Amino acid sequence: MSREAVIARLQAGFDDGGFLDELARRVAYPTESQVAESFPHLERYLREEIGPELGTMGYEVRIIENPVEGGGPFLIARRIEGVGLPTVMTYGHGDALHGLAGQWRDGRDPWTLEVDGERVYGRGVVDNKGQHTINLRALKAVIAERGCLGFNSIFLMETSEEIGSPGIHELCAEYRDDLVGDVLIASDGPRIARDKPTLWLGSRGAINLDLRVRLREGGHHSGNWGGLLANPGVILANALAAIIDRNGRINARGIVPERITNSVRQALAGITVDPGPDGPTIDADYGEPGLTPTERVYGWNTFDVLAFRTGNPDNPVNAIPHEAVANCQIRYTVDRARETLVPALRAFLDKQGFPEVEVYEAPGRSAWGATRLDPDNPWVRWAAASIERTLGQAPAILPNIGASLPNDAFAEALGLATIYVPHSYPGCSQHAPNEHGLLPLFREGLAMMGGLFWDMGENPEPFRPGRGG
């Protein structure tokens, strides 16, 4: 019974194909939360796959209907081993993005696991089925080796993360007594680079906005009215150009931080954004001047235009359109309060002479808040030391990632210290055709999580720095 035995057990289960067999079974569930016809598969995934697995591990399992219409079900599983032991929450999401069947390389089926060299293809292999499968197997291995975990464990799984996690804040409020603990240890997203183990401690928030100019009812012949009628597409294009210039500098300064704090700058020093051989080339001169690429994506706010439409793009006609709409997004750090962003953008547009541009949050999209845990938090130091003990190298530590997820439900509503240990890499094609994981990172992830969960139970009292850290 030892730490080394847990890691050996996990890696043997990987080498004999057991991990891939389990992952293939889970990938086969077409859990597309954006597709109404797939909603039955969300419940099946919890009821047939995850729930029974946790049940065999001695967890009390409940599947809970989403309190918000349009959201998929939740699973809460609890294994309480003793009063006074630290309580660790683990989170994952069972839903995946659109399969995009027919767009995958070499005719691959998104719902069929396929191994090609060191790559493991399939929708959800990294986002998030592969990652929560690693963590489940690590917990199971510790129980098998020690006979117990040595700490209390809560496992929360949702099935609507890819549509903004509707209902998760309401769930955390209603079931707070069943979810509250000391620390969240979960896995999602990519490492900073393929060969660099990573911890990230929070996420940027995200707000989806629509900017609209609507000037009249219906279009009018461009030959008769061109030059006489204001064009909403032209007005909106100029408004967007006022907000952000061609090089990506945001001129609406009320929606960006005043500065990057010294603690964040120090944490990001020496960390390089590595897109990998299949990733896009970073545009070195795009974004906020004076910041490194790492600071721009992890320490700053961004404004992006996701879609722009005016007239009939698929079948243009000779008419001055009556309206134009831009679907935009702000990713933001904790340095700007969420509730200030839309008013700041509104005030900027008014000052620049664009009162006709409406600004409103996109309907039907949940907004995730920004979170950031201090890298000097005791839980972070403990987790980093455990990973270094396992792999022989210290992990990169990101105060927050550039992407977004519902971490505010855990960090704020439940008061947990939040630590994520990703098992993917930047070039994984997450959210795109050809999503894939890497065999070496899956195997390494099993070792890391086995070591972490073993260390948590080995001598739990020193690892209890206080609720929420």
* Shape, principal axes of CA atoms: globular
Give the helix proportion (percent range). Answer: 25-40%
- What is the total tally of β strands? 17
Rg is: 24 Å
Overall pLDDT score: 94
Main sheet makeup: 6 strands, mixed
User: What is the first-to-last residue Cα distance?
Assistant: 30 Å
Task: Look at the structure and give the CATH class of the largest domain.
Answer: Alpha Beta
The low-pLDDT segments are 465-469
Overall structural class, as computed from helix and strand content, comes to alpha/beta
The total domain count is: 2
Please name the CATH architecture of the largest domain. 3-Layer(aba) Sandwich
**Beta-strand proportion:** 15-25%
How many helices in DSSP terms? 14
> Numbering strands along the chain, what is their spatial order in the largest sheet?
1-2-6-3-7-16
CATH level-4 homologous superfamily of the largest domain: Zn peptidases
Stated plainly, the CATH topology of the largest domain is called: Aminopeptidase
Written description of the protein model:
- With 469 residues, the protein is α/β, with parallel strands linked by helices.
- The chain has two domains: 3-203 and 369-463, Zn peptidases (Aminopeptidase, 3-Layer(aba) Sandwich); 205-257 and 301-361, Alpha-Beta Plaits (2-Layer Sandwich).
- The chain has 14 helices and 17 strands.
- The strands form five sheets. The protein has a six-stranded mixed beta sheet with strand order 1-2-6-3-7-16, with helices on both faces. Strands 11-13-9-14 form a four-stranded antiparallel beta sheet. A three-stranded antiparallel beta sheet has the order 4-5-17.
- Strand 4 (114-116) and strand 5 (119-121) form a beta hairpin.
- Helix 4 (129-146) packs across helix 14 (439-458).
- The longest helix is centred in the last third of the chain and has 20 residues, at 439-458.
- It is globular, with a radius of gyration of 24 Å.
